[in-house]
Each structure stands twice: as C-alpha cells, then as structure tokens.
Amino acid sequence: MQRRRLKQTTSFEERLAEHGRVLRQKAKSLPPGIEREHTIRKAGQAETGAQISEWLSTPGLPAPE
Prior knowledge:
There is one protein chain. The chain is an all-alpha fold. The chain is 63% helix and 0% strand. It has 2 helices and no strands. Helix 1 (12-29) packs antiparallel against helix 2 (34-56). It is flat.
C-alpha cells in the first residue's frame, strides 16, 4: 500500500491559528460548562502552538545554551 501525500497550501502556523479561531467560535455557541471550558482551552493551546512555531522559525533566533 502506498501512503497518500497531500500538499499543504497553508503553513502549519496558519492552520493552527485557524483551528484556534474555529474552536473559539464553537465555544461561543456552547452553553457554560465543562465542554465549553475544554474547547476554550484547546483553542488557546492551538493559538499558543502557532505563535511558538512561528517564533521558532524566525531567522536570527539565538541558539540555546
């Protein structure tokens, strides 16, 4: 079997940020409760991941000591 290859048209950071936006919109439609809190937390994690990934890919980042 061959594995399907998919060429991404957007960057990883853009996809993570978009996922975070979608989750925030979903959380707005949910009633207050555990599911809403989990959705908000996942949205924050996706947005933070996008920011960290973007930061790590910037040129001129100092090497860790």
